[in-house]
Specification:
This protein is of the alpha/beta class and 228 residues long. It contains 8 helices and 9 strands. It has a 5-stranded parallel beta sheet with strand order 6-7-8-3-9, with helices on both faces. Helix 4 packs across helix 5 and helix 4 packs parallel to helix 6. This is ATP-binding cassette domain-containing protein.
Length: 228
């Protein structure tokens, strides 16, 4: 584990952790070799953390464990100091909706919905009003340089645009925890910088941001780095 510079607003970790992993082990098949073994980390508010390392080291799996989409074989994921791994599926889904934003490696947009409907989907599920959140969605599209009509479908846009729309969807509800899997993978250097700025600004607002990346530039922009 290699730690980068500490964020200026970092406080004692145990008092400020929103997200925490303790001795987490996970394998995809019972009795199989673990993809993640006895792994622990703390993620204080106001921080961006890069998860780096060669392919096959379990970076994406760790992200899904931190996001309560996978349940560890042993160990615990805690949110705001409360163990969350053993919660029932419905309770974990509620936590994800209320506290998390996700950017998946393949964007994971609904091809039957418009760009704006994709951005608003999670926020509306959380009970936010469409008018207010649509304004934020439009502002994010402009900030991230996505110059496409809001009623266009995902099949009518580029991969790089889809990835930025996925980031808009993750940011629009201003989540306390944002998990991003290779968010700059389909982007050129200039657009990647815009995306990284949006992620670090979100962390600075008092959130936790965890980024899986192979990019040295993205990792270098984060407050700290964990090599797997």
């Amino acid at each position: 584990m290699v730690w980068k510079r500490e964020h200026a607003c970092a406080c004692p970790a145990r008092n400020r952790d929103v997200l925490r992993a303790d001795n987490v082990t996970f394998s995809y098949h019972r009795g199989g070799a673990p993809v993640v073994a006895d792994w622990s980390a703390e993620f204080p508010v106001g921080s961006t953390t890069a998860l780096t390392g060669p392919s096959g080291r379990g970076k994406s799996t760790l992200l899904y464990l931190l996001g309560l989409m996978l349940r560890p074989d042993s160990g615990e994921i805690s949110i705001d100091g409360t163990p969350a791994s053993a919660l029932r599926d419905a309770a974990r889904a509620h936590l994800r909706a209320q506290k998390f934003g996700f950017v998946f490696q393949d964007a994971a947009l609904d091809t039957t919905r418009t760009v704006m409907d994709n951005i608003l989907e999670t926020a509306l599920y959380r009970g936010e009003r469409r008018n207010g959140v649509a304004v934020r969605g439009a502002e994010l599209l402009t900030r991230l340089g996505v110059d496409v009509p809001e009623d266009r479908k995902p099949g009518q846009i580029s991969g790089g645009q889809a990835q930025r729309i996925a980031l808009c969807r993750a940011l629009v509800s201003e989540p306390r925890i944002l998990l991003a899997d290779e968010p700059t993978g389909n982007l050129d250097a200039a657009t990647s910088a815009v995306v990284v700025d949006a992620l670090t600004d979100h962390a600075a607002s008092g959130a936790v941001v965890v980024i899986v990346t192979h990019s040295p530039a993205v990792a270098g922009a984060c407050d700290r780095r964990i090599d797997l």
